Task: inverse folding
């Protein structure tokens, strides 16, 4: 996954923090709990992920968010990382023979996923005020070949109290990225 391509997918848009807090407080009732509120101790985080985050210049404002696993669709997936330009953030991968899952912590919190025309877009919210906006990444597909169950999807996840937007890229489609949200955790920093 190329960081330059990820930058092209992100656009600036978000309400002021005060307005957002009011919306979160009124909307939190009845929403599911955010899985990442239960932080994972560093010793339980794959070393490649922790090392990538250690190099990141934004680690003071952008906690490490990572997938616990790839689910049954990605057995024996391998945890790896890639450097970001000037180590301004971190870029981690979970890959198997079947697929790839990427989580990137590099962009400003005001980022959001650009929706590809004709593929729809989705939003998911959690009780802690987190919001994911996601949709298909059909840039490399031939016209008319989009399939929500097999086309790659990407999301931008905003978590309160984090100074970055998390970009999540999943090659296994809509259902898999939605189940991936349930497997995302923050690494405990203490």
Result:
């Amino acid at each position: 996954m190329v960081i330059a391509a990820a930058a092209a997918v992100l656009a600036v848009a978000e309400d002021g923090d005060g307005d957002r807090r009011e919306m979160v407080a009124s909307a939190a009732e009845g929403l599911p709990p955010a899985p990442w509120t239960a932080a994972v101790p560093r010793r339980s985080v794959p070393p490649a992920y922790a090392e990538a985050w250690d190099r990141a210049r934004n680690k003071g404002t952008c906690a490490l968010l990572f997938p616990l696993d790839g689910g049954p669709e990605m057995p024996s997936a391998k945890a790896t990382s890639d450097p970001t330009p000037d180590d301004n953030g971190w870029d981690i991968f979970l890959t198997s023979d079947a697929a790839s899952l990427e989580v990137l912590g590099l962009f400003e919190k005001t980022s959001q996923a650009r929706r590809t025309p004709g593929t729809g877009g989705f939003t998911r919210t959690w009780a802690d005020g987190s919001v994911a906006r996601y949709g298909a990444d059909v840039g490399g597909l031939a016209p008319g070949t989009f399939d929500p169950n097999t086309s790659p999807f990407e999301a931008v996840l905003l978590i309160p109290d984090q100074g970055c937007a998390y970009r999540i890229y999943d090659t296994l489609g809509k259902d898999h990225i939605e189940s991936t949200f349930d497997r995302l955790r923050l690494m405990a920093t203490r």
User: Anything to note?
Assistant: Residues 170 and 177 are 6 Å apart (CA to CA). Residues 3-139+149-186 form one domain. Confidence is low (pLDDT under 50) at residues 1-27. The first strand starts at residue 10 and ends at 12.
